[in-house]
Amino acid sequence: MAGAGSNSGSQHASPRGASLTSPAEVLSSIFAEFARRRKDEKVSAWMFLQQALAENAGVLCPSVVSLKDLIAATANVEDLLKGQSGDKGISPSEYLSGWLNSSETVKQ
Asked: What's the rounded Cα separation, in Å, for the pair 30 and 42?
């Protein structure tokens, strides 16, 4: 999933300051970057979060979260995205809402 969120110039999901070793520092950095990216592109931000959590599992497990819970969290993001592309800029729920509320109706 390289390139998820290429707007920042980074091609991988490691948080800024990749030399961080403390689980709290890593988690704080991941979510700060997620919040920053989410302002621009929600889908890409979720893709980044999923990848960054997976790439930093060695630091986060088991001191912050269990491996089972981390896998479940990344699977939940996968379900949320359901094939969405990072360059769409909207979340799956926003897309569905727009589709349901579109002015074009099916004529019967």
From this structure: 15
Write the pLDDT tens digit of every residue in 6-35.
344 343 455 554 566 789 899 999 999 999
Q: Do residues 59 and 14 lie in contact, with contact meaning Cβ atoms separated by under 8 Å?
A: no
CA distance 18 to 27: 11
- pTM (two decimals): 0.59
How many CB atoms lie under 10 A from the CB of residue 60?
22
Contact 13, 55 (CB under 8 A): yes
Residue 45 burial (CB count, 10 A): 23
> Alpha-carbon dihedral of residues 69, 16, 23, 46, nearest 10 degrees?
-10
Structure tokens at 34: 């997620």
Ramachandran region, residue 68 (left: φ > 0; alpha: ψ -120 to 50; beta: rest): alpha
